[in-house]
């Protein structure tokens, strides 16, 4: 019997996945990323020290956990190098406990140029990290993969034809072309990463499952940003939902035993796209301020609004969520009235209003210690979406967590 857990976002990202993965990974053998790239920004807070991870799985702070970047991730070598160096400065070790799939698609500097110039006209509000263009090349079967660093002769040729293609696209946007030799040099600069961490990750997955190791799959972004099930075209370019685990790591769905879906007690969104419960009043401002709602990757202010239970219920279905996790409950502490959306009428939200609890829940670790009105609020959510809130987060720090 395997004992593997998937943790993913049920909204538009930034639900607090990093915090929860870190909290739960103490006794976990392996933590894996399976999709997305350094568009993600996962924040962990331990003993007052804040760590923001973009590519490296949020289990890295627990010395005994192995961390793997799976084939479904698009990999920016410079970003990975920087992240590893920063963590090494803090005496976090990587030898024999950090691995990257040889089948990861590489993000090249030309992908970033394409992403940025496109977004000027298409206005998705991407993170500008080259994510979409890299996934396009993966699906187009012309991508450079991490394992290609092992064969320099062919690598040069492959980069040559890909960058030539990119330059044609850039010409359409009246942008400067990239020099092929420079791109090659930029990739090969990180050969050491290849030598140190490149593996056949599917073989490893199989071995770990056979050894009955406990595995935690760390989602990036969130369900409403999924390429198929999100608010298309205002989405990211990967499968952020449960299905992404199997394709992004090469592990069958029967090895995912528990699926923890995370939702904030309200909603945020970065970038463009529809947001039915968005607030433009003092309540929205209060959520942004109390929740410190600025992107962990780009620093952009996050749009804020009430919790949408219709969307949440659907996301729970899409992902077969077995356990709900509600984060940032403490952010609502000073709200006199709290709304949740329970229906849509002509694209407008129908709200149910709750009395606020007007007392601090910050750092509470026992469910019974929550104010009565907070318990009423949570119970209503649980009944509406038919899922138990097994985890409730009451602050950014690892230990500010209720486990039920
Ligand atoms: P992720 O992308 O899902 O990992 O989430 P981010 O790290 O981008 O954003 C979540 C933010 O909320 C971070 O700044 C966290 O430190 C913070 N956070 C997480 N859980 C809580 C919580 O329960 N209460 C408060 N106040 N902050 C939290
Ligand atoms: P984590 O893992 C919130 C959003 C961008 C943009 C859209 C497409 O920290 O929750 P992309 O650069 O991926 O092509 O941008 O997706 N986006 C995120 N929003 N959290 C994230 O990651 C996000 N990653 C991408 O803002 O709207
Ligand atoms: Mg984030």
Structural summary, described in words:
- It is a single chain.
- This protein is an alpha/beta fold and 404 residues long.
- The chain contains 12 helices and 19 strands.
- It has a 10-stranded mixed β-sheet, sandwiched between helices. It has a 3-stranded mixed β-sheet with strand order 14-16-17.
- It is globular and about 65 Å long.
- The two termini are 23 Å apart.
- The model has no long low-confidence stretch (mean pLDDT 96).
- The structure holds guanosine-5'-diphosphate, 6-O-phosphoryl inosine monophosphate and magnesium ion.
- The site of magnesium ion has 6 residues, from loops.
Which CATH architecture of the largest domain would you pick?
A: 3-Layer(aba) Sandwich
Instruction: Give a quick account of the main beta sheet: strands, pairing sense, barrel closure.
Output: 10 strands, mixed
What's the β-strand tally?
19
Count every helix, treating DSSP H or I runs of 4 or more residues as helices: 12
Broad structural category: alpha/beta
Can you identify the CATH superfamily of the largest domain?
A: Adenylosuccinate Synthetase, subunit A, domain 1
Number of domains: 3
Helical residue percent? 25-40%
Low-confidence stretches: none
Assembly annotation: single chain
If strands are numbered along the chain, what order do they take across the biggest sheet?
9-7-5-2-10-1-11-15-18-19
Distinctive features:
Adenylosuccinate Synthetase, Chain A, domain 3, 404 residues, binds guanosine-5'-diphosphate, binds magnesium ion, 12 helices, binds 6-O-phosphoryl inosine monophosphate, 10-stranded mixed beta sheet, 3-stranded mixed beta sheet, alpha/beta, Adenylosuccinate Synthetase, Chain A, domain 1, Adenylosuccinate Synthetase, subunit A, domain 2
């Amino acid at each position: 019997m395997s004992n593997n857990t998937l943790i993913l976002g049920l909204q538009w990202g930034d639900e607090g996945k990093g915090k929860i993965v870190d909290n739960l990974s103490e006794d976990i053998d392996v933590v894996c990323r399976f999709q997305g790239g350094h568009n993600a920004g996962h924040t962990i807070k331990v003993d007052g020290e804040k760590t923001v991870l973009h590519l490296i799985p949020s289990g890295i702070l627990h010395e005994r956990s192995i961390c793997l970047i799976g084939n479904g991730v698009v990999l920016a070598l410079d970003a990975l190098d920087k992240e590893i160096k920063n963590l090494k400065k803090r005496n976090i070790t990587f030898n024999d406990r950090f691995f990257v799939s040889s089948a990861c698609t590489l993000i090249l500097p030309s992908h970033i140029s394409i992403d940025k110039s496109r977004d000027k006209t298409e206005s998705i509000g991407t993170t500008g990290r080259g994510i979409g263009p890299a996934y396009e090349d993966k699906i187009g079967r012309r991508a450079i993969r991490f394992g290609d660093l092992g064969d320099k002769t062919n690598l040069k040729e492959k980069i040559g034809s890909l960058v030539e293609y990119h330059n044609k696209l850039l010409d359409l946007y009246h942008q400067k072309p990239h020099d092929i030799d420079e791109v090659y040099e930029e990739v090969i600069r990180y050969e050491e990463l290849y030598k140190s961490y490149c593996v056949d990750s599917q073989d490893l997955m199989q071995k770990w499952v056979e050894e009955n190791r406990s595995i935690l799959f760390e989602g990036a972004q969130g369900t409403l940003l999924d390429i198929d099930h999100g608010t298309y075209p205002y989405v990211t370019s990967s499968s952020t939902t449960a299905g992404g685990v199997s394709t992004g790591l090469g592990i069958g769905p029967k090895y995912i035993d528990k699926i923890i879906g995370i939702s904030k007690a309200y909603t945020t969104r970065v970038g463009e796209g529809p947001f039915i419960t968005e607030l433009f009043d003092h309540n929205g401002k209060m959520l942004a301020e109390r929740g410190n709602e600025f992107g962990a990757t780009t620093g952009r202010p996050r749009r804020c609004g009430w919790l949408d239970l219709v969307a949440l219920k659907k996301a729970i279905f899409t992902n077969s969520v077995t356990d709900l996790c509600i984060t940032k409950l403490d952010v609502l502490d000073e709200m006199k009235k709290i709304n949740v959306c329970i229906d849509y009428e002509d694209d407008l939200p129908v709200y149910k209003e709750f009395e606020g609890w007007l007392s601090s829940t910050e750092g509470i670790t026992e469910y019974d210690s929550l104010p009565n009105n907070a318990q009423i609020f949570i119970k209503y959510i649980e009944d509406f979406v038919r899922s138990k809130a097994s985890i409730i987060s009451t602050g950014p720090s690892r230990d500010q967590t209720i486990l039920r």
